[in-house]
Amino acid sequence: MRVSVLGMGSMGRAVALRLLGRGHAVRVWNRTPGKASEVIDAGAAEASSPAEATRDADAVLMSLADDRAVREVMARLAEPGTGPGPDPSPDPGTDPATGPGPDPGTEPGSGPATGPGPDSGTEPGSGPGAPVVADMSTVSPDTSRALAGLAPGGRFVAAPIIGGPQAVVDGQATGLLGGGRGLVDRLGPVWQDLFAVQWYCGDDLGSALTYKLLNNYLLMSGVAVVAEAVAAGQAAGLDEAMLGDLLLRWPTVAPALHNRLDDILHGDHRGWFATRLGAKDVRLIAEVAESKGLRLPIARLVEQRYEEAAGRGWSDSDITAVVELLRERRG
């Protein structure tokens, strides 16, 4: 298929590389020059604007940092008569990939999405013409629902990803797909090449995002707690190598945390999930719950920890930087 990828953060680049490797024709756009060099070298074409990137595309995949960025880019796609040219807007940000790692399996009580099938034709604007826009960004459920009204022809689906950039490149990520079934299935060849597991979350676009936010909340909480455990063990003078080995072996430490243990232990925070975006994701799931009359006190505490780390100079560092709050206080 002819696929456009908007946003060349860690996840956007991984998506583009995976699809190029599977034989898709890929065109990419990112406001900041130079971030797409890896995928250009791999065979992608580069566009100077979102409109140019999406011209003649079958699918448009957005991987952006937050709600504001997604709304800005979608508004530009919806502008009538928008043609190719230099991009004048502020940088809307790119998604550094918000996910814990390869999905270990399928969850009970939920059905995987089936493969591609004929378009049911029941969705507004689902006829030939404009491409289907799929948002892979981690945004609020309400934003995802609103985007359907902005997408050209109403052709919009939600497709947040469970898994980090390397899982995407390796074809081991999981896709949470939401929206009209005919539109979701229209991009079946993309999903089959991109995801090891697909879950169809229903026609409510917000449901796919709620599942994703719950996943990220568990990841953020787990990293924060493991950071405290590591800091406590180091303060107590435990053997660091043995501490790390036991944390890898203990069943109480989730597999998704294993690939961050070394970074927490040794203070290397060059990973791909920015602390400020981790705080944003926890805030979003707390707001979802509060909109239904349910307060999540632990979520708000976790959010506060990541906000504090971001405010103390770790904003663009990996979420493992939350451990530095403890080290700074201990001196």
UniProtKB/TrEMBL annotation:
Q: Where is the composition biased (Pro residues)?
A: 83-105
**What are the residue boundaries of the 6-phosphogluconate dehydrogenase NADP-binding domain, all occurrences included?**
3-76
* Family statement: Belongs to the HIBADH-related family.
The residues responsible for catalysis, as annotated, are: K212
Q: One Pfam family name from the record? A: NAD_binding_2
Which positions are tagged coiled coil?
none
Name the source organism: Streptosporangium minutum
One GO MF annotation is: NAD binding
Which PANTHER family does the record cross-reference, listed alphabetically? CYTOKINE-LIKE NUCLEAR FACTOR N-PAC, OXIDOREDUCTASE GLYR1-RELATED
Q: What is this protein called?
A: 6-phosphogluconate dehydrogenase
Start and end of every 3-hydroxyisobutyrate dehydrogenase-like NAD-binding domain? 206-326
* Region spans: Disordered: 78-146
- State the UniProt keywords alphabetically: NAD, Oxidoreductase
